[in-house]
Amino acid sequence: MGANTKKWALLATVAAVLLAAGCGDDGDEGSDAADGGAPLAQEWKTPAVAHEPEDVWLPPLWVTGDRVVGISTEGVTGHDAKTGKAAWELAPPEGAGQPCAASPTVNADGVGAVLFGPADAKPGDDSCAVLAVVDTKSGELLWSKDLTSGDSAYPSADVIPVSVGEEAVTVELIEDGLHRFSLDGEELPTPEVTVGEQCDDYYTDWRHSATYLVAVVDCPDLTGAENHIAGYDAASGEELWTAADFTDEDQPARVEILTDEPLTVATQERLVSFGKDGKVLTDLPLKRPDGYLHLDPGDFTIRDSVLVTSYDDATNDYVGIDLTTGKELWKKEFDFAPHPLAPGSGSGGELVALRDGMIEGENAMGEYLALWDARKGGEPSTAGMLPENAGSAQAVASSDDGGVLYVLAEPEVGEEALQIEAYRR
Q1: How buried is residue 403: exposed, middle or buried, by Cβ count under 10 Å (0-12/13-18/19+)?
Q2: DSSP state letter for 297
Q3: pTM
């Protein structure tokens, strides 16, 4: 099943929001939608499986066609989306132990990737470098590669470790660099970085997503610039564009890809998005007069090219920013902070999240499904409450038609276990 899902909620993955119409307008105070709601009808629930969330990179859920795939340190299981019954269980590749990381999403054909630790892992061994590529429709292991070099190889705690696009799989491991493969398992070369050709000495830090590779180059000798960024096609490795001095800060110690549409990165000081030709579309400081844009995994979501995130210490104040223009579409203060923000679907760009509220007819707090539109804003509507025994929700996703909500939950708060629950909207 999922994992340390607070890390992901989305990166890659994008989705839910809040509201108040009008550019930069605080709008009317929100109605207290948390005053109650009838429980959603539970379609099914999987048995809980053990999960050790420390130092792992795993996605919340893979939802693709008629499969809902859960990933935990216990294993990888594909469930029938209609019944919740296990359709397949992925056997670890030869020499592999427990799952430790995975791609945030699968591609259009339902292909995803999982990283495993070694089968003979010793206490304190952080190795996480056995790559397995799986067809989520059938559960077939398409191919695997042991990327371990030296004593160990493992992903960074701050960036996506493995991504799957329509034609390629990309992995980045600390002190081991970038690995690229075709979907058939053929190893592909690391793109040549030309932005630093005039430097005697330069360092390239790679980031990747399903669509793009991004090279961040420390090359102070080249035209005096201290931060260069180059975009590449993740499938072909073709260089698409380069940009020098892409922000007004010194060489960023951290660059993370937030979304592909448009390609958007965050440094420790700024939010920058690029057009297909490398033109900077948005360049905003994270520090605002009224707060600070929160861009750690789990704090934000992106839908329809709109970033939705909190910007105050209490995390109850949210803002919607159009990444194609940098324009602030709305901002809003809520009685309760929505959580988790998650992928949604349905008519009119509908988005979903969970918020705290009172369960109708009971003197108890619960979580309810709230619906918004990222671009238009407006008041959230309540689609229903999760039942009191739903556990602690860690992530949510929805079916392709938006009719079913899938919740990844800890059966009890703090319990090292995960289960998937399905609710009809």
Answers
A1: exposed
A2: T
A3: 0.83
pLDDT tens profile 394-421: 777 888 777 888 888 888 766 788 999 9
Structure tokens at 240: 């698409």
User: DSSP character for 39?
Assistant: B
**DSSP string computed for 12-32:** S--------SSTT---SPPP-
13 Rama class: left (phi>0) / alpha (psi -120 to 50) / beta = beta
Q: What is the DSSP string of 213-226?
A: EEEEEE-TTSTT-S
Edge-to-edge strands, sheet with 381-385: 341-342, 350-358, 365-373, 381-385
Say which residue the tokens 């007819």 belong to. Answer: 361
Pair 367, 356: CB distance under 8 Å: yes
pLDDT digits (tens, 9 = 90+) for 349-388: 456 666 666 555 666 567 777 777 788 776 677 677 888 7
Q: Which of 66-80, 90-104, 188-202, 352-366 has the lowest average pLDDT? A: 352-366
Q: What is the phi/psi pair of residue 292, to 5°? A: -150, 130
Give the residue from 214, 212, 205, 270 showing the smallest Cα distance to 242: 214
Distance CA 30, CA 335 (A): 8
The helix/strand/coil state of 5 is helix
Nearest to 344 by CA among 6, 7, 18, 4: 18
Q: Where residue 323 falls among pLDDT bands split at 50, 70, 90? A: very high
What is the separation, in whole angstroms, between the first and last Cα of the chain?
22
Determine the Cα–Cα distance for residues 70 and 273; give it in Å rounded to an integer.
Answer: 32
Alpha-carbon gap, residue 234 to 169, rounded angstroms: 8
